[in-house]
Specification:
The complex is a heterodimer of chains A (141) and B (478).
Chain A: E1 2-3, E2 8-11, E3 17-23, H1 26-41, E4 51-57, H2 62-78, E5 82-92, E6 95-104, E7 118-119, E8 125-129, E9 132-140
Antiparallel strand pairs in A: 1-2, 2-3, 3-9, 4-6, 5-6, 7-9, 8-9
Helix pairs in contact in A: 1-2
Chain B: E1 4-7, E2 10-13, E3 23-26, H1 29-35, H2 39-47, E4 53-64, E5 71-78, E6 83-84, E7 96-105, H3 106-109, H4 113-123, H5 139-148, H6 150-155, H7 161-165, H8 183-189, E8 202-211, H9 214-220, E9 226-233, H10 236-253, E10 269-270, H11 274-309, H12 313-316, E11 319-325, E12 327-336, E13 339-348, E14 351-352, E15 371-374, E16 382-387, H13 389-394, E17 398-399, H14 409-416, H15 421-427, E18 431-434, H16 437-441, H17 451-460, E19 464-477
Parallel strand pairs in B: 3-4, 18-19
Antiparallel strand pairs in B: 1-2, 2-3, 4-5, 5-13, 6-10, 7-9, 7-11, 8-9, 8-19, 12-13, 14-17, 15-16, 16-19
Helix pairs in contact in B: 4-11, 5-11, 8-10, 10-11
The chains are: A alpha+beta (141), B alpha+beta (478).
Chain lengths: 141, 478
């Protein structure tokens, strides 16, 4: 499934949900991954950018960084009940700073697509090539 | 992948490469044809490379592509020399199913199905953006809960003593170590007790529409036309986070033990290592949360029945037949190569299926064999089986756990476009209420194998015996 406005592509995985993303820069790849997770969780169109959260995540490599960033965002949704519709990413040393804008999930206004249990390590990859940056992520749903 | 036919329902992947034991897959000829190019067979072979694995790397007929282990995978590791793999249990630690019987006949309540489904939808929240039926629990209370398991529900008015007797392990693994569970995991679980979750989790009202073993069905309290309840859920965010925490820790420790594996999601450390012991303590805690969660949902369901149908508890006759887990690692004794050995059995999408007489079974069902609960998809049926002696000899006392997906979630969503699946299911006599978009579309009946085929393979291979079939008439999805 192509999600032009969300800039990710779902690929076939029998049990879970896999996505692929491309971006011209590393920071943009992580920003798009953050928005992809929001779109997987909730229909983003009704979310208002009423509040923001500021995350800085560091890791030894980009694959772990992708896992840890998305896991932190998943915590934002499951623990704080916060869902986002916009994101800005900036490089922060080996890590990344991400500011997400959104609001509290409200089941009377927001449509839950599905729950995500975890960001798996299975076939998780973040790579750079001559064409830009690419990520492959499988979520346990 | 080379496959050798052992008999009509069993196929072997010969040992090759780094495999320490052969792989064995329970499937019929049609299923195995479908599987030949599936990544799940590669996963069976990868599991066979884990240090300390004994017997075979097994897969049940509901096998499908997972992450690390295949879904439907069973692997027993030597308790002293083997490894423990958090990915071999999965994110949803102690995901499982419980079956409840009632005194009701379907015809009696058919005029009230809509009201009953609405009441259950209200009583059993999905857990996302909704308050659980239980007020938020403090970390201190959660630590008590994960130590006590279903006993917490008993102490807090959500269980009767006989419920615990009819729950695998009595609803509590005694080796839980609450301090091994992270603060983040506790936060994720704090408002999720008594919630279903989404994905393939459900609460299903069914009627018994076929009996295959009359004496066994009678012993279990099942009769034709009777209303039953199936609850499928797990350890929620507390378990998901626990798995994630330990995948990271175990993955980082593997080099210390000179373990190298083809898939990071298979990360494993020696059972006896500090990391292995820490995971087992945390896993037991998460498993105990899951048993308590299903127990609380059972009591909430009972209350919804009583309020909607305005009847007494004795007239309703709501009682637990059995609760099984299908994502777990447990220490058990099995005969391997002619010798009794203590092993750690990983069941990832596989159900324990102990045969008759096993001391771990509750007294009432001990002579029958363990009740094995196999949910199908929401449009067809589910099955009640009993474990047989062959399971003890061949599969470390294990069976399948469900229908097994054949269609990706992405494809299911595509297939569902423009269709009114709720209306289609209503045509089949099934009322479905779901709290998420994916709750119906991704879980549409066509996304799954026919569970009858899966169960037939287990029966033909002598692993389980069919007792009854349950036909759903109302389904609550997360």
């Amino acid at each position: 499934m192509d999600n032009d406005d969300q800039q990710f592509r779902e690929f076939e995985h029998t049990g879970d949900l896999g996505i692929e993303l491309n971006a011209p820069t590393r920071a943009e790849l992580f920003r798009r991954a953050a928005l992809a997770l929001a779109a997987i969780l909730v229909d983003r169109h009704n979310i208002k950018p009423a509040a923001q959260r500021d995350l800085t995540v560091e890791a030894d490599n980009d694959t772990d960084l992708m896992h840890d960033l998305l896991t932190a965002l998943l915590g934002l949704f499951t623990i704080e009940n916060f869902i986002w519709c916009d994101a800005a990413a900036t490089e922060a040393g080996n890590g990344l700073r991400l500011i997400v804008k959104g609001e509290s999930f409200d089941s009377t206004r927001h449509w839950l697509n599905r729950e995500v249990k975890a960001v798996t390590y299975h076939q998780l990859s973040v790579t750079e090539s001559a064409y830009g940056w690419h990520a492959r992520i499988i979520f346990d749903v | 992948m080379e496959l050798i036919k052992i008999h009509d329902y069993l196929w072997e992947i010969p040992k090759h490469g780094a495999m320490l034991v052969p792989g064995r897959i329970y499937a019929n000829a049609h299923m195995i044809d479908e599987l030949r190019d599936d990544p799940s067979l590669e996963q069976v072979a990868n599991v066979a490379c884990l240090p300390g694995i004994v017997g075979y790397s097994l897969a049940m007929p509901d096998i499908h592509w997972g992450y690390g282990f295949p879904i439907g995978g069973v692997a027993a590791m030597d308790a002293e020399l083997g490894v423990i793999s958090p990915g071999g249990v999965g994110y949803d630690i102690n995901c499982g199913v419980r079956l409840i019987r009632t005194n009701l006949q379907f015809e009696e309540i058919s005029p009230c199905i809509g009201n009953l489904a609405d009441a259950l939808f209200e009583a059993i929240p999905a857990g996302v953006g909704s308050q659980g039926a239980i007020p938020n629990l403090s970390v201190e209370e959660l630590r008590r809960l994960v130590t006590l398991g279903a006993n917490w529900a008993l102490q807090n008015g959500y269980a009767d003593p006989e419920d615990l007797e009819h729950t695998e392990e009595g609803g509590c693994l005694p080796n839980a170590e609450p301090e091994r569970v992270s603060e983040v995991a506790y936060k994720r679980g704090s408002k999720q007790l008594g919630t279903l979750g989404s994905g393939n989790h459900f609460l299903e009202l069914s009627r018994v529409d076929a009996i295959y073993a009359a004496t066994a069905a009678k012993s279990l309290g099942l009769d034709l036309g009777q209303v039953t309840v199936l609850i499928h859920s797990g350890s929620r965010g507390l378990g998901h986070q626990t798995c994630d925490d330990y995948l990271r820790m175990v993955g980082g420790a593997m080099a210390k033990y000179e373990i190298t594996l083809s898939d990071r999601q298979l990360a494993a450390v020696p059972i006896s290592s500090p990391e292995g012991q820490a995971y087992l303590g945390a896993m037991a805690a998460a498993a105990n949360f899951a048993w308590c969660n299903r127990q609380v949902m059972m009591r909430l369901t009972q209350r919804a029945f009583l309020q909607t149908l305005r009847m007494s508890a004795s007239d309703l006759g709501f009682s637990l037949i059995y609760d099984v887990c299908h994502n777990i690692a447990k220490f058990e004794e099995h005969v391997v190569d002619g010798r009794r050995r203590r092993v750690c059995v990983h069941r990832k999408g596989a159900t324990r299926a102990f045969g008759p007489g096993h001391p771990a079974l509750p007294g009432a069902w001990r002579d029958l064999g363990q009740p094995v609960l196999i949910p199908g998809d929401m449009g067809r049926y589910s099955f009640v089986l009993l474990g047989r002696d062959t399971a003890m000899r061949e599969t470390f006392g294990s069976s399948c756990h469900g229908a097994g997906r054949v269609m990706s979630r992405t494809k299911a969503m595509r297939e569902a476009r423009g269709r009114d699946l709720r209306a289609e299911l209503a045509q089949l006599g099934v009322t479905v209420l779901a709290q998420s978009r994916g709750g119906i579309a991704e879980e549409m009946p066509a996304a799954y194998k026919d569970v009858a085929d899966v169960v037939e393979v287990m029966e033909a291979a002598g692993i389980t015996q069919k007792v009854a079939r349950l036909k759903p008439f109302a389904v609550i999805k997360g």
